[in-house]
Amino acid sequence: MTAIQRLSHQARFDLLVFRRNPAATFFTVILPLIFLVIFTSIFGNETLDNGAKVATLYVPGILALAISSATAVNLAITMTTRRERGVLKRVRGTPIPPWVFVVAQAISAFVISVAMTVIIVVVGRILFDVSLFARGIPSLLITLLIGAMSFAAIGLALTAIIPSEDAAPAVTNAIMLPLYFISDVFIPSDQVPDWISTIAGIFPILHLSNALQESFDPFVEGTPFPWQHWLVIAAWGVGAAAVTLRFFRWTPRR
Which of 12, 60, 72, 75 is the most exposed place for a label (fewest CB within 10 A)? Predict the structure, then answer.
């Protein structure tokens, strides 16, 4: 079996495991859709000057939530659970090369992110007349690729500081939830103090949300190219990959 075949097989298995995990499915697939409905119901869905609906402006933050949930949050919790239950230790005893197992996690996370983007855009289009202009699709695809891979690396790196299976959800949410509120996901960045926006700018979620906003912005002319945000996200991904290579554990801590 070639490396490509092994990657494909492992990625399909990880997607199957994700689909059969009710908690992961709810927080990654259902919850973002619930937020889209709530935001549109509370803040309205008026028509903008160029004919686009206001709901179009809510989608980037919802997508940032879905992507980070499908990648960083899901992998941090799942891989810690597998480590503490001895699954990763048994994987090391199989013919699967460790790099194939790890890269397959990122590939499956990217597939989930693309699927979530399609679901949110389609549901948003049907229910709230959300617009996705052709000029923003190339930028959206690049953002999905860089974002999914980088946040997958962040999720794997987070396992280094999570001591146990029980602590995984608490540690992960303690890190991610505050960032959602200051990173233009739930609250627009122009409605938070400048010093909070400065802090948020250090972390990748704000840049993921802003890069997605440029892809959906109905007022942008031409193809957006938010390379500043891509660079920050990619830098976090490279740093997280380095931490993963150095500190990732295959054996339980207990």
Answer: 12
Quote the pTM value. 0.90
Q: Which long-range contacts (CB under 8 A, 24 or more apart) does 118-124 make?
A: 119/29, 119/33, 120/32, 120/33, 120/36, 120/59, 120/62, 120/63, 120/66, 121/59, 123/33, 123/36, 124/36, 124/55, 124/56, 124/59
Closest by CA to 193, choosing from 204, 205, 185, 181, is: 181
pLDDT, tens digit, 9 for 90 and up, residues 55-68 = 888 888 899 999 99
Percent of the chain with pLDDT over 70: 98
Q: Is 50 helix (H, G, I), strand (E, B) or coil?
A: coil
How wide is the angle at C-alpha 77 spanned by C-alphas 161 and 154, nearest 5°? Answer: 60
Q: How far apart are CA 183 and CA 196, in angstroms?
A: 9
Residue 187's closest CA among 4, 43, 53? 43
Provide the pLDDT for residue 193. Answer: 86
| CA dist 170 → 41, 117, 163, 184 (Å) | 30, 26, 11, 22
Question: CB-based contacts of 52: which residues, under 8 Å, 6+ apart?
Answer: 131, 218
Q: What's the whole-number mean pLDDT along residues 101-124?
A: 89
Spatial CB neighbours of 161, under 8 Å, sequence gap ≥ 6: 171
Contact (Cβ atoms closer than 8 angstroms) between residue 150 and residue 240 = yes
